TrEMBL record:
Family to which the UniProt record says this protein belongs: Belongs to the inositol polyphosphate 5-phosphatase family.
Molecular function terms, GO-annotated: phosphatidylinositol-3,4,5-trisphosphate 5-phosphatase activity; phosphatidylinositol-3,5-bisphosphate 5-phosphatase activity; phosphatidylinositol-4,5-bisphosphate 5-phosphatase activity
Source organism: Paspalum notatum var. saurae
PANTHER family (alphabetical): INOSITOL 5-PHOSPHATASE, LD06095P
Protein name: Inositol polyphosphate-related phosphatase domain-containing protein
GO BP, sorted A to Z: phosphatidylinositol dephosphorylation; response to abscisic acid; response to auxin; response to jasmonic acid; response to salt stress
Length: 338
């Protein structure tokens, strides 16, 4: 767990060093997405400032109480839980999660835009550490009112005991050939969120996290060869065909963001009720559509580590698998002293 109960307004912001694990230096050149290794356990433990569990799931408009409860394990070694949902049903997913988390965590905030939803939970004592919270949304298209599957993003800004965080849960344009549209939607969302407050959404954030169904696909490979590689546990060979990593490398999206290694199987598209890839006539190419990325502001004096980045294969009520990450923040070595 983090050590937020003893964390005060940081004195370390003005004392910066260059030894951070994943702190991002805002240079003029693009860096692409930095793939970082997974720490099997949160090495910071009680030295951590804050531990955050992040979950994204496209629910395919289907409600399964059993699967919703599977999102959160019984071992809840985190201070905050962020859940981003796409194609969420009209059923009250929030209520199910609140009941599931009742013994250890409480709902701190939520935001919804049709089928897009984000919920923030905190440990029982966390309410007193919230110094500021803002929510926003931005639509970029989709059928919206017809079938309730809006594209766009919902977002939350929170100042938690002096750590300023932005979480963006999004659903971008579908289909393999819509790469430029996804890039454009990312840019529009980035420029629009929290603009009513007069500043770009991430300008004053110590850490920014994007989660959601980004909808980037594998390209340059047909479905059956891709599936064969996955069956042989060689999915790592498919990373070079991932559109999101390709576009980031070009500097089009997510410049300087970090992501855990894609060691899990592609999370889309499955036959509902199974862990079998699409058997419809479309025979879609499996893809890592569902992602969690983060960026630490270099001037924050914080470091971050991922102790897990995984998909939940046991969840089968949707054609997507949920993706879950455990992120721990710590004052950078050398910045803790007064």
């Amino acid at each position: 767990m983090g050590n937020c109960s003893s964390f005060a307004i940081p004195k370390w912001r003005s004392k910066l060093h260059n030894s951070g694990l994943v702190s991002v230096d805002e240079g003029g050149t693009h860096e692409g997405i930095k793939t970082i290794p997974i720490q099997k356990a949160c090495e910071f433990t009680t030295n951590s400032v804050l531990c955050v569990c992040i979950i994204t799931w496209n629910m395919n408009s289907k409600m399964s109480v059993e699967d919703v409860t599977k999102l959160v394990s019984s071992s809840r070694k985190f201070d905050l839980l962020v859940v981003g949902l796409q194609e969420a049903p009209k059923s009250d997913v929030s209520q199910v999660l609140q009941e599931t988390m009742a013994e250890t965590h409480t709902l701190l905030g939520q935001k919804r835009m049709q089928s897009l939803q984000m919920l923030l939970f905190g440990s029982k004592s966390s309410q007193e550490y919230i110094k500021e919270m803002k929510v926003d949304k931005h639509a970029v298209g989709g059928c919206g009112g017809i079938i309730g599957r809006k594209k766009g993003a919902v977002a939350m800004y929170i100042n938690f005991s002096g750590i300023r965080m932005v979480f963006v849960s999004c659903h971008l344009a579908a289909h393999e050939h819509k790469v430029e549209k996804r890039n454009s939607e990312f840019q529009h969302i980035s420029q629009s969120l929290f603009s009513k407050y007069g500043t770009p959404y991430a300008q004053f954030a110590d850490i920014t996290v994007w989660l959601g169904d980004l909808n980037y696909r594998l390209e340059g490979i047909s479905s059956m060869p891709a599936r064969k590689m996955i069956e042989e546990n060689r999915q790592s060979k498919l990373r070079g065909r991932d559109q999101l990593l390709q576009e980031a490398e070009k500097g089009e999206v997510f410049n300087g963001y970090c992501e855990g290694t894609l060691s899990f199987k592609p999370t889309y598209k499955y036959d509902v009720g199974s862990s079998i890839y699409d058997t419809s006539y479309k025979v879609r190419v499996p893809s890592w559509t569902d992602r969690i990325l983060f960026k630490v502001d270099h001037s924050s004096g914080l470091d971050a580590t991922l102790s897990s980045y995984e998909s939940l294969d046991c969840v089968r009520s949707s054609d997507h698998k949920p993706v879950k990450a455990h992120l721990c923040l710590k004052v950078r070595d050398g910045d803790e002293a007064d």
